[in-house]
Amino acid sequence: MTRLNLLNKCTDGMEVDCPPEDSIVSFDEDCVELGGVKDMRLEAEAVVNDVLFAVAEMHVSQSLNNASDVAYINVETREGNRYCLELTEAGLRVVGYAFDQVDEDLSTQYHETVYSLLDTLSPRYREAFGNALLQRLERLKQNGQ
């Protein structure tokens, strides 16, 4: 999907699952493949870069064992809640309620995108996302596009 098509999709019906910034990334197009498998460490860095504007803190875990098939991301929402996220081919899910914490007994829903996951966790993320989208649309309007 092209960046323009993705932006049009975002503005048609204001879908919350779309990135509002110029950093629109298609993970399928931009990922690095190793033997047909996405490298989740690189995917995790792309995820962090996409939504850093709308959270208090977010980084790829340095203490958990990241690999080509799984990566862990620590995120603190604007509300001050901390989570450890797991990124795999299945998607993203919460695996802990503190940085670098994995609770093996925790069974949480997978989300296809980081936008969807953060939308469920953080009302202030949703607000920041909406504000960023409005600013982007205003810039496009001012540039006559």
UniProtKB/TrEMBL annotation:
<feature type="domain" description="GSKIP">
    <location>
        <begin position="40"/>
        <end position="140"/>
    </location>
</feature>
<dbReference type="GO" id="GO:0005737">
    <property type="term" value="C:cytoplasm"/>
</dbReference>
<dbReference type="InterPro" id="IPR037395">
    <property type="entry name" value="GSKIP"/>
</dbReference>
<protein>
    <recommendedName>
        <fullName>GSKIP domain-containing protein</fullName>
    </recommendedName>
</protein>
<dbReference type="GO" id="GO:0060828">
    <property type="term" value="P:regulation of canonical Wnt signaling pathway"/>
</dbReference>
<comment type="similarity">
    <text>Belongs to the GSKIP family.</text>
</comment>
<dbReference type="GO" id="GO:0051018">
    <property type="term" value="F:protein kinase A binding"/>
</dbReference>
<dbReference type="InterPro" id="IPR023231">
    <property type="entry name" value="GSKIP_dom_sf"/>
</dbReference>
<dbReference type="InterPro" id="IPR007967">
    <property type="entry name" value="GSKIP_dom"/>
</dbReference>
<dbReference type="GO" id="GO:0019207">
    <property type="term" value="F:kinase regulator activity"/>
</dbReference>
<dbReference type="Pfam" id="PF05303">
    <property type="entry name" value="GSKIP_dom"/>
</dbReference>
